What we know:
The chain is mainly alpha-helical. The chain has helices at 2-6, 12-23, 31-43, 63-74, 80-86, 92-118, 127-156, 159-177; strands at residues 10-11, 47-51, 57-61.
Amino acid sequence: MLGLLGEGPLHGYELKRRLESLVGFFGTVSYGSLYPMFRGLEIRHYVTRTSEQTGRIVYHITSKGKERLFQLMHDPTVPLTQKLLFLQAIPPAERKQILESHKEEWDNRLKQYRRMQESIDVKTIDRYHAALLARETDHVAKDIIWLQQLIEDEEAKTPEQDSRDSHSKLLKSSRKKR
């Protein structure tokens, strides 16, 4: 929720709609779970709310909420897939740092998997376990290539391109509101 509010103020219905577009077919977001989350974020002073003339409540991220969002973006326990959804809201130098830290973690994981593959004793491990390890090793190697490309793209991006990307994202968001 902080990531979505970091892009701009939203009312409950719009936030619910945007959250559901992120979770896709994995599930839905109910108002029964959404509003208690809002209350918790308000208690911690991460968000505030205002009322529109129409009576709808609009939620805004606070400076403390932005600090928390940045902490989460740098937290190694938060999966990269979640971070990528909101990476555009992070300053370019920090985006690169976040990507590089995940790449380093994946590089280490790949080394570990390759050491495991080298030490496999075919007499004590069945072919299915070996195949699973080979599959995971291959996936991590491909993910590292993909992540390296994201880092290189980030390095090649000019401030003007970054600004256009943010503007393009806002335009898409405002079109959906219509």
